[in-house]
Amino acid sequence: MINFLILPILVPLITAVILIFLNKSVIAQRWVSGLSAFVTVILSALLVNKVKNDGIQTLNLSNWDAPFGITLVSDMLSALLVLTTSIVAFACIIYSFKGIGEAREKYHFYAALQFLIVGVNGAFTTGDIFNLFVFFEVMLMSSYALILLGGTKIQLRESIKYILVNVISSGLFVIAVGYLYSVVGTLNMAHIAARISEISGISQPGVISIIGIIFLIVFGLKGAIFPLYFWLPGSYYAPPAPVMAIFGALLTKVGVYSIIRTYSLFFYEDGGYVQQVIMILAILTIIAGIIGALAYSDVKKIIIYNIIVAVGVILFGVSTMNESALTGSIFYLIHDMIIKAALFLLVGLMATITGTNNLKQMGGLIKNYPGFSWTFFLAALALSGIPPLSGFVGKVLIVQGGFSSEYFIGAAIVLASSLFVLISIMKIFINGVWGEPKTYANEKTVPYKQLLIAPVILVILSICYGVGADFIYPYMSQAAESLINTNLYIDAVLKE
Amino acid sequence: MEILMIIIAGILFMSATYLMLSRSVVRIILGTTVLSHGVHLLLLTMGGLKRGAPPLIGEEASAYSDPLPQALILTAIVISFGVTALFLVLGYRSYKELGTDNMEKLRGNDGND
Predict the structure, then answer these.
(1) Separation in Å, CA of B58 to nearest CA in chain A
(2) In whole angstroms, what is the distance from residue A375 CA to residue A373 CA?
């Protein structure tokens, strides 16, 4: 079926509209959103399979030919990201059944969540730069709703800053699109790429570099790279655990995906200037994230700063632009989406049980909650990249690519970052899970077993992802292939 | 003509930046609306301001102005309208709940939650 690649966008959209009418009945909302999320996982898995067998899928909406209408493009990278998004969303929805509270559920929590999935899946699938902006706004608007829902003081305070930063970056995005349009006269990404390779070397290559830097600022604001990550620790701290998990797993990664996509399609022909900027910023991002992760004794803050470290690692792999590091980046990107969602859910569970975020007031959770503790232990090892688990393969390929392109300092910092990530996460484990058990006030009322289901699913997935790396590798190298050989992408869209 | 429009857009960006760096939430929201005006004006200008008929087939002119930036601006206007409405309500609600519209007092220090 030719319309297949639109289904992961369409199913959540229709579900969200239905959910708006079901707002009185919490049970019906849970069933509908859970089922629809499951269907989306199945559909996106089928999409990955289809892209694997038949190559890059394109769909011209309303039958307008490629540069003139909006084209949806699903290459392996975007299909894999859509699949990961669906899985993460499914897990977060399961966690929300018990973890979010009826007050929030009655005020369109699930509808906003489904709209967020529409935005993220759309941003991964679109082949039009302005349509990417629109899907960004769909995603951001639902994230505003989710970060505000509940209206506690900290949420109100932090969402002012979150919305302000995103309004500014959206303004910059439109400016960048305007500049790009005035230079190349088209909005279709494949067509822009073709036009840029025509004009580069003939006239004003500097203009393209400047537009590249503006796009880097825009997507860097969304994806939290080094000087532009200042909004993230506060904003992600405010919402409840499932929302935090979905933000941490998906939103920054959309910015990272957009950097990968625009950079590999548009800005690689200017003699490596944008590449150098991305590499330096990526290294600084890793360092800034590590400093934050080591500095705090607040469980949520530690995981939040680990998002920033991961963004830096992925972008370092992308900026080296050789095949091994790119494959590694894609490996690491998907691993990180899954494991960050799992960690945020686990940390949220920890905070629900103990009633505090502060590590110094916790201790001895392993006595009463062994299931939680060992899940957390596995997730922590996977995050830092211990061999059989999922973080390992990606980092090995990134480091290997960095060394083979002779970026020794960057690759060494990526290696060292693993150690510091392990220290920061083990600090949670040692202080929170080991030691003398303490008694907590509302321990008995927490539906601990039901809340543990979603993170356990994610951690099992991530273990399978690490152990089955041989099986997954062809998918990853196909994804990297279409990033390096952009003619594959351009020809698939423009059908030359 | 484009030069003039670019200067005007630049002045709008300047005022928006100034407003957004101030302390009051309302002035910040005004800054975001001024920013979006500048953005939309710039988008129109970057599409080119050559003379031509309005983009209606019934005009039967030899040249039309570029319809694409106009569609983009229309989309961007609606989006920024939605965001601004949400932002204004948020400003109102946070004034009610937190009792201040001063960004200096909205810092996330401990004991300030």
Answers:
(1) 22
(2) 5
